[in-house]
């Protein structure tokens, strides 16, 4: 499977401003510069889809991208750990991120991006633990794999896994990607489509059950027999 079409839709200052939809949404988060926008460009095969440079305006907004004629969405979230000047700005950004992650009903899976070149960072581990405390489903995406040798990359991924297993019983799904080389593209897309399928099936099942409980169809055969 592959993405049929992709289109930028809207940038919102908070969760209330996000588009009203009823389809699954996959959001990317991580420190600024980790490669969130590049990953969205790589997945959609459009270098201009998400802004990859540091345009402070856009990076402080929740950006929605409509996939496959609106069947699902990709979302580019602001980076955390931003060296923002002023407490007010930092608080506002935190509120926006928390508001989206905790209250966006459509959020189906969060992808937390980590730069494969770095050792486990405190701010990332804290963020992952916060997700755990709030039962937010997430997967980990290592970025910029082209910047290290395969062996060095694997070593760093192992170090992260070890760190994660200190607080987590199970590891989340882990993807190794390079937006430069399109590495990990098909794996991520397959993963998203498999979740979309599950969501679709759950919806069908719910509709079926709602139908059964809301409107029991009269059983005319028994009614006749009873007469
Ligand atoms: N070599 C390499 N550079 C990358 C990759 N992903 C992102 N970058 C670079 O890292 C910088 C930040 O990327 P960006 O997508 O804007 O990060 P964001 O702030 O998380 O959205 C840019 O200069 C990108 O070109 C990658 O997979 N490989
Ligand atoms: Mg960005």
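^ Assign residues to that structure.
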């Amino acid at each position: 499977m592959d993405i049929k079409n992709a289109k930028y839709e809207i940038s919102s200052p908070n969760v209330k401003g996000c588009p009203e939809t009823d389809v699954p949404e996959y959001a990317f988060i991580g420190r600024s510069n980790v490669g969130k926008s590049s990953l969205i460009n790589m997945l959609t095969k459009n270098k201009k889809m998400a802004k990859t440079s540091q345009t402070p305006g856009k990076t402080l907004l929740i950006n929605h991208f409509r996939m496959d004629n609106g069947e699902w969405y990709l979302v580019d979230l602001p980076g955390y750990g931003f060296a923002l000047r002023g407490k007010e700005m930092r608080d506002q950004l935190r509120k926006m991120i928390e508001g989206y992650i905790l209250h966006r009903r459509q959020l189906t899976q969060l992808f937390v991006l980590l730069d494969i070149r770095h050792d486990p960072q405190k701010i990332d581990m804290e963020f992952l633990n916060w997700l755990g405390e709030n039962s937010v489903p997430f997967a980990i995406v290592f970025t910029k794999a082209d910047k290290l040798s395969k062996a060095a990359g694997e070593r760093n991924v192992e170090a992260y896994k070890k760190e994660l297993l200190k607080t987590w019983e199970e590891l989340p799904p882990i993807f190794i990607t390079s937006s430069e080389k399109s590495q990990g593209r098909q794996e991520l897309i397959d993963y998203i489509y498999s979740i979309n399928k599950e969501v679709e099936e759950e919806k069908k099942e719910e509709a079926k059950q709602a139908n059964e409980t809301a409107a029991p169809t009269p059983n005319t055969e028994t009614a006749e027999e009873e007469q």
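The CA atoms of residues 142 and 176 lie 5 Å apart.
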